[in-house]
Amino acid sequence: xxxxxxxxxxxxxxxxxxxxxxxxxxxxxxxxxxxxxxxxxxxxxxxxxxxxxxxxxxxxxxxxxxxxxxxxxxxxxxxxxxxxxxxxxxxxxxxxxxxxxxxxxxxxxxxxxxxxxxxxxxxxxxxxxxxxxxxxxxxxxxx
Length: 143
What we know:
Elements: E1 2-5, H1 11-23, E2 28-31, E3 37-39, H2 42-59, H3 72-83, H4 89-95, E4 98-100, H5 121-124, E5 129-131, H6 132-139
Parallel strand pairs: 1-2, 2-4
Antiparallel strand pairs: 3-5
């Protein structure tokens, strides 16, 4: 079982590492997901996610879906799912071994959390980024 702390990690790079562990059959738990970051300017990131959310209402408001997540754990799970071969049985099985949490649950407080040095925002020296917490609040999520 791998416990990964997402604090100041780029979620795309974190997702690639998590997918490798999941496809090897390990259980992956991601904590502090609201502190994860998306690289890029705030305006372009907001625009991209708002366009996704509003696309369904532009075409046909009576239609149900597609649905996109607003909360940080949903955005992270969706990023990981997009990298898995989800339509195949091994991808679905791997996805079931994933748990994503806002903050650190009590059962994982005393356990050692891994971090990914290659995904840290300070090491990458990315000048423009946005935290998942800010993105979720702008999309209308409450947590």
